[in-house]
């Protein structure tokens, strides 16, 4: 449980619902969203206005690390994948800049990379809310929902995990929606269970038309 402005994380053992055990862990202020690393041992959560990612060890019930990242990280649940060079990583995009920070998450087999930013990718722009991949995919999707440029806010970037240095491809999600008016902000890519489709929301105003656009993960169409 993130007690957001205080920087406290409450780790609640609910094995016995009548006698809850709560561990309070001091971290960094302005905690927001986050998710598990690929081992499901470490909880990675953004302290967004502190420009940090906090790592909680749920097994030993203690703080594992605080990692400096870009400006105002906003990972959603973040994105786990195996980096060709650095091994298992967890990624976050940012509201405040155009970077994607990749943090090493394997202290056993890759201790030299654990809890460090091992790579920083350059995306379309700031204003990102969600980053996503899937164990069966080699693609990494990044939205830019709150970017001031309509063209950037209405599209999404996709990286090839096997060629991250090759940059990104832009998907014109709002255009594909067929909606004519409204802000058409593209947000929150989510995979289907099979990992072969990615679903994007297209947001407009309360009285305007919105949509969901489904993209084929293989063809990117």
Summarize the structure in words.
With 221 residues, the chain is mainly beta. It folds into 2 domains: 1-122, 7 Propeller (Methylamine Dehydrogenase, Chain H); 126-220. It has 2 helices and 18 strands. The strands form 5 sheets. Strands 4-5-6-7 form a 4-stranded antiparallel sheet, with no helix packed on it. The protein has a 4-stranded antiparallel sheet with strand order 8-9-10-11, with no helix packed on it. Strands 12-13-14-15 form a 4-stranded antiparallel sheet, with no helix packed on it. A hairpin with a 5-residue loop joins strand 4 (31-36) and strand 5. The chain is globular. The termini are far apart. The model has no long low-confidence stretch (mean pLDDT 97). It holds the Pfam family Cytochrom_D1. InterPro entries: Cyt_cd1_C_sf, Haem_d1_sf.
């Amino acid at each position: 449980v993130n007690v957001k402005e205080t920087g406290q994380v409450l780790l609640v053992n609910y094995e016995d619902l009548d006698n809850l055990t709560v561990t309070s862990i001091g971290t960094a202020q302005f905690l927001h969203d986050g998710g598990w690393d690929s081992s499901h041992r470490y909880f990675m959560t953004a302290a967004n206005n502190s420009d940090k990612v906090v790592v909680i060890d749920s097994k030993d019930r203690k703080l594992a690390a605080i990692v400096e990242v870009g400006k105002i990280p906003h990972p959603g649940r973040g994105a786990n994948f195996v980096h060709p060079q650095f091994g298992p990583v967890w990624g976050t995009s940012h509201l405040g800049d155009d970077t994607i920070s990749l943090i090493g998450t394997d202290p056993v087999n890759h201790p030299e990379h654990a809890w460090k930013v091992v790579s920083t990718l350059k995306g379309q722009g700031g204003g990102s809310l969600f980053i996503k991949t899937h164990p069966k995919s080699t693609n990494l999707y990044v939205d830019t929902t709150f970017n001031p440029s309509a063209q950037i806010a209405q599209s999404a970037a996709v990286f090839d995990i096997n060629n991250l240095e090759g940059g990104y491809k832009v998907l014109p999600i709002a255009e594909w929606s067929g909606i004519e008016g409204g802000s058409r902000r593209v947000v929150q890519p989510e995979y289907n269970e099979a990992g072969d489709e990615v679903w994007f929301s297209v947001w407009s105003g309360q009285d305007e038309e919105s949509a969901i656009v489904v993209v084929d993960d293989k063809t990117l169409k």
